[in-house]
Amino acid sequence: MCLAIPVQVVSIKDSEAEAEIGSVKRRINICLTPEVKVGDYVLLHTGYAINVIDEAEARETLRLLEEIASLSEIH
Amino acid sequence: MKFIDEYRNVELGKKLIARIHQRSTQPARLMEFCGGHTTAILRHGIRQLIPQNIDMLSGPGCPVCVTANADLDKAIASAHLPNTIITTFGDMMKVPGSHSSLQQAKAEGADIHVVYSTQDALQIAQDNPQSSVIFIGIGFETTAPTIAASILEAEQKGIKNFYIFSFLKLCPPVIKAILNLGEVRLNGIIGPGHVSTIIGSHPYEFIPKEYGIGCVISGFEPLDILLCIDKLVEQIEGDQPQVEIAYRRSVKPGGNRRALDLMNEVFEIGEANWRGMGTIPASGLKLKRKYQRFNAEQIFSIDPGPPREPKGCICGEILRGIKMPTECKLFRRICTPEHPVGPCMVSSEGACAAYYQYGVN
Question: Euclidean distance between the first and final Cα of chain A, in Å?
């Protein structure tokens, strides 16, 4: 029910945007994420973008995971 | 797909699991409150990969499952109102109410449309100005802002034939209710990822403060969940319970301000009726007085009669974490996804459906 998937915004017009999901494009509502820009990834939930995915934080989490993995090798 | 594939890296996963095994020494019981987590944990076999001293329980985090029969019956009864179109998320169709289901009502001739979004429901209302179009509003804080946005859009566009049932529910109050019940002793909570995208991490601060256990908000990919378990293990082993976010690409401490503003404009906090737990004060969202003209319960005269629970179904106990789906006498024998007795077998996020689909004994 709270399922949300990452999609990339490819164009914006007022409170609507077009987003790409794999190779499929669909119209999404962006009234909950007024800060969104073309090229951003958003989490799509029931036709609405519910946030803009933070790419820097995504990279940081992956770096943390790599670090944890390297620690488990040492022990 | 970006933001999915990289969090399914098998090699990193193996190392993360090895580290959890190295660090976890104490018996620990964790509860995931979100149905999406239940499904992901079972689908990726995480229960089998983590140390045996860590026990994982599912909580009341599937909106379809926690909708009480009394509310479900109202929705089903409304489908038989004259000149009415019901719009609903697909998961609700097969859920058995006290006497019938939406699917059965549709078979009997009721006009019921499965929609993906409230946007679709609004479009149906615009395309059918002679009919009343009712949307069955179920969900948690993730979905509530989208329903609020549809109400505001209906008002702005002057759509006068759009109504909703608000069976919307709130996560932190039910977490508190489970902890207060004390039926299961928990050592940590896997916090809901997309609810928290909206509400942030602050509303969970009461968990370490009042109950002395940690809450780590998790994403839905296997590495997200393993990272969350790793953080909870670290908290438990170090006896330092706190609220942490292990899903930082999506969850900010303050949540989504805009979504919260829309939600608070349209809804106010009220009591809600939960399957298995009854009425919990201040655990639901009701339309504010100025939006009562959208309130299906106010506008239409609906009396479905007293609710009845399905005989032998233990969904209520499963939702409270005190029983496992496999402990139900009906599981797999009488209750299956094709012929569900209770809602936890219907919803794709229900614990029974997940245990059934992923063959966990």
Answer: 40
Please answer yes or no on whether A1 and B62 come within 8 Å at the CB atom. Answer: yes
Instruction: Locate the domains of chain B by residue range.
Output: 1-314, 315-357
| Low-confidence spans in chain B with pLDDT less than 70 | 360-361
Q: Does B342 touch chain A (CB under 8 A)?
A: no
CATH code for the structural domain at B1-314: 3.40.50.11740
Residue A70 one-letter amino acid: S
Domain of residue A39: give its range: 5-74
Cα separation, B23 vs B5, whole angstroms = 27
B219-258: pLDDT as tens digits: 999 999 999 999 999 999 999 999 999 999 999 999 999 9
- Count of CB atoms within 10 A of residue B152's CB? 15
Q: List CB contacts (< 8 A) between B16 and chain A.
A: 65, 68-69, 72
Closest CA to B310 of B332, B274, B335: B335
Are A75 and B146 an interchain contact pair (Cβ–Cβ within 8 Å)? Answer: no
Q: Does A60 touch chain B (CB under 8 A)?
A: yes
Residue A10 sits at the chain B interface (C-beta within 8 Å): no
Q: What is the pLDDT of residue A69?
A: 82
For the stretch B160-190, pLDDT in tens is: 999 999 999 999 999 999 999 999 999 999 9
Q: Write the CATH number for A45.
A: 2.30.30.140
Question: How many domains, in total, are found in chain A?
Answer: 1
Contact A58 B249 (CB under 8 A): yes
CB spacing of B256 vs A66 below 8 angstroms: no
The pair of three-digit structure tokens given for residue B121, joined into one six-digit string: 């429901």
Share of chain B above pLDDT 70, in %: 99
